[in-house]
């Protein structure tokens, strides 16, 4: 079953189930698995080892902060990978179009856009084309 971990109500219900020892989190992503596993352990310590509810709440807050930090790091890496994939697709398309260019006039702007994309310098192609305007026309 898929859960929406960003929904506050769903997340709170999952936390309660984990603390009660009634949640199967074995198929959860790593950050969620770690967090709900820690909550299950806190619930067990409260029921069987006499840990106070207050101590468990404090520990839960520590675990929650670590969980949100792990999720933020995961999201940052995910966004970075998406950006890299987008740039890769864009440069591949520019390279393909450059390979099919028939004239220098058609190839130069494509080559400059490809270089711009590869070095990640916005407006590079436009600046160079402006500098070459007299020779290019």
Topology, please?
Blueprint: H1 8-20, H2 30-48, H3 53-99, H4 104-119, H5 124-131, H6 133-136
Helix pairs in contact: 1-2, 2-3, 3-4, 4-5
Number of helices: 6
Largest sheet: none
The percent of residues in helical segments reads over 70%
Number of strands: 0
Run of helices and strands: HHHHHH
Radius of gyration: 27 Å
Structural class: mainly alpha
Low-confidence stretches: none
Q: Per the principal axes of the C-alpha atoms, what is the gross shape?
A: rod-shaped
From the N-terminal CA to the C-terminal CA, the straight-line distance is 62 Å
Strand content: under 5%
Mean pLDDT: 93
In short:
Helices cover 78% and strands 0% of the residues.
Label this structure with key terms:
137 residues, 0% strand, 78% helix, mainly alpha
Structure in words:
The chain is mostly helical. It has helices at residues 8-20, 30-48, 53-99, 104-119, 124-131, 133-136. It is rod-shaped, with a radius of gyration of 27 Å.
């Amino acid at each position: 079953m898929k859960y929406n971990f960003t929904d506050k109500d769903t997340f709170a219900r999952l936390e309660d189930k984990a603390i009660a020892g009634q949640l199967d989190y074995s198929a959860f992503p790593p950050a969620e698995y770690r967090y709900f596993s820690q909550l299950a352990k806190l619930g067990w310590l409260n029921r069987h080892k006499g840990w106070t509810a207050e101590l468990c709440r404090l520990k839960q807050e520590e675990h929650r902060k670590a969980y949100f930090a792990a999720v933020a790091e995961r999201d940052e890496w995910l966004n970075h990978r998406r950006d890299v994939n987008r740039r890769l697709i864009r440069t591949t398309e520019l390279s393909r179009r450059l390979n099919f260019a028939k004239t220098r006039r058609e190839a130069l702007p494509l080559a400059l856009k490809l270089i711009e994309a590869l070095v990640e310098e916005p407006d590079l192609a436009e600046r160079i084309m402006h500098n070459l305007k007299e020779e290019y026309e």
